[in-house]
Design a protein that fits this description.
single chain, alpha/beta, Rossmann fold, three-stranded parallel sheet, two-stranded parallel sheet, 7 helices, 14% strand
Length: 157
């Protein structure tokens, strides 16, 4: 991810990478960012409750993961109308709109950078609500299902 950021900065110095979340890789990522000179272009948000608001402020969603169980973050990004460039480590089931494109993690950073810059140069950000609902990821429907599920199992106890 940091190498892709560096490749993007070679073509456009007005780029920022927003890293949301926290974990044991935070410090190694900071160290590498410092080493390759991209620290000033990264925002480390830490854990946040307002992910959907952050996504509204983003231009592109970039997810070069080696492996994901489902890729819920990619589904959330699609729900926000973002163009998404993700690695083949994300399951195909995570593609619920036309906004998600897969790319091999083996592709050079420059290829990832070109595609991200292409997306960042502009696109029509569309309302994807119905596609998300049709794919079974509507939060209200899922909350209702969980509520019914828990009612049923507590009635049997």
């Amino acid at each position: 991810m940091l190498n892709v950021l560096r490749a993007m900065l070679e073509k456009d110095s007005d780029i920022a990478l927003v890293l949301v979340g926290d974990g044991p890789l935070r410090e190694p990522v900071r160290d590498k960012a410092e080493k390759i000179g991209v620290t000033n272009h990264i925002v480390f948000t830490g854990v946040r409750p307002d992910i959907s608001d952050l996504m509204q402020a983003m231009d592109v969603f970039f997810f070069p993961s080696l492996f994901e169980g489902l890729g819920v973050a990619a589904i959330e990004a699609q729900a926000s109308g973002l163009k998404c460039l993700v690695s083949a480590g994300i399951p195909s089931e995570a593609r619920v709109t036309d906004n998600l494109e897969f790319m091999s993690i083996e592709m050079p950073a420059e290829v990832w950078a070109e595609k991200l810059l292409e997306y960042a140069s502009g696109y029509d950000r569309k309302n994807t609500y119905q596609m998300i609902v049709d794919a079974g990821y509507d939060v209200k429907d899922n909350a209702r299902w969980l509520e019914n599920f828990y009612h049923k199992i507590t009635e049997c106890a």
